[in-house]
């Protein structure tokens, strides 16, 4: 939402509202080429402030700034020019009817009444979004955890591109602050507490709760303006989520396996609910062998104009959102079970080796003492 606290920036510009045609799969817009920049290796030790923080004295740039899209692009956050090969499969996932629940007629009537009021962003977030995405179901589900307007900790910033040689001025981007964030419940992974402790903020990045692990779905709300702002916010939110999930994979299985099995697949989904439209997008990573350069790509999956929705179409949109959350939660849960177990086992093995080495050293010392005696 637009009333979140942020650092003022003199170069601000409001995004424009974009209306979408009713119930259609997304087309692919043109995308500017990404500058040639190299990221610092996230697995190598970084000097203080090198990950996510610009040079001392650099100013913050918020999502309302005119240069915010440029800052995202310099961090590798771009919209894909080409449709991903799994686009049709993801579309079918969103359209599945099994496991979703319909909206009541009076609930839809409240949506229509709310959307008649111009600029009613706060009401959209409180009246429309919770029943539309079944937020109460997500929050009471034993597998999932949802947070409303929860800011990520300051350490959760993307690595900065190496820009000194190119004379590029890099600004600070504040950590994500989504309107809705969905991740996994910590209580289901307590058996991997050594791995979770080792991963720290990578595993639990939300400042107001440590009960959520590895967020994988983000939603932004806007009124009658600001749709483009929401696009930029969601791309940044998703990029940070992807970065953490990719770090988990790299820590557990190495860079080469991660490049082959994690990259180029939809790992995070996002949605925008505004007065004029509702959209869902997919987000994924790409990387090149022999390079630390990571790109965070996005592609529109579904869009709909809210001004022409019938009762059945509102139920269809609700089904999209429910399926989107269910899909990424299932994918993330499978990754966490595999990768956290691997990291946890590695830590335990390391501890056993240390104990064994200490025990052997003590035995040798006792034998020497016996011989000397």
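^ structure tokens above, recovered residues below v
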């Amino acid at each position: 939402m637009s009333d979140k606290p942020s650092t003022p920036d003199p170069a601000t510009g409001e995004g424009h509202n974009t209306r979408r045609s009713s119930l259609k799969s997304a087309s692919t817009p043109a995308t500017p080429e990404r500058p040639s920049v190299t990221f610092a290796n996230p697995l190598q030790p970084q000097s203080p402030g090198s990950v996510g923080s610009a040079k001392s004295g650099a100013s913050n740039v918020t999502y309302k700034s005119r240069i915010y899209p440029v800052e995202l692009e310099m961090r590798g956050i771009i919209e894909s020019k080409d449709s991903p090969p799994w686009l049709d499969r993801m579309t079918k996932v969103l359209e599945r009817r099994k496991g979703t629940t319909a909206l009541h007629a009076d609930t839809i009537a409240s949506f229509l009444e709310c959307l008649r009021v111009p600029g009613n962003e706060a009401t959209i977030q409180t009246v429309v979004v919770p029943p539309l995405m079944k937020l109460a179901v997500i929050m009471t589900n034993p597998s999932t955890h949802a947070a409303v307007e929860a800011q990520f900790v300051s350490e959760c910033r993307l690595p900065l591109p190496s820009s000194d040689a190119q004379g590029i001025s890099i600004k600070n981007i504040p950590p994500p602050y989504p309107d809705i964030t969905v991740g996994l419940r910590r209580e289901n992974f307590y058996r991997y507490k050594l791995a979770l402790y080792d991963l720290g903020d990578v595993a639990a990045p939300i400042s107001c709760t440590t009960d959520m692990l590895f967020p994988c779905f983000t939603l932004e709300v806007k009124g009658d303006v600001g749709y483009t702002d929401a696009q930029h916010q969601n791309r940044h939110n998703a990029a940070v989520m992807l970065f953490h999930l990719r770090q988990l994979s790299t820590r557990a299985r190495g860079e080469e396996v991660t490049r082959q099995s994690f990259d180029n697949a939809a790992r995070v989904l996002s949605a925008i609910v505004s007065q004029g439209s509702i959209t869902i997008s997919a987000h994924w990573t790409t990387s090149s062998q022999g390079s630390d350069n990571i790109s965070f790509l996005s592609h529109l999956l579904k869009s709909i104009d809210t001004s022409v929705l019938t009762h059945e179409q509102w139920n269809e949109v609700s089904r999209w959102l429910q399926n989107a959350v269910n899909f990424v939660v299932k994918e993330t849960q499978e990754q966490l079970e595999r990768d956290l177990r691997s990291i946890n086992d590695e830590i335990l093995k390391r501890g056993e080796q240390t104990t064994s080495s200490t025990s052997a050293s003590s035995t040798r010392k006792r034998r020497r003492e016996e011989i000397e005696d």
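The chain has a mean pLDDT of 83.
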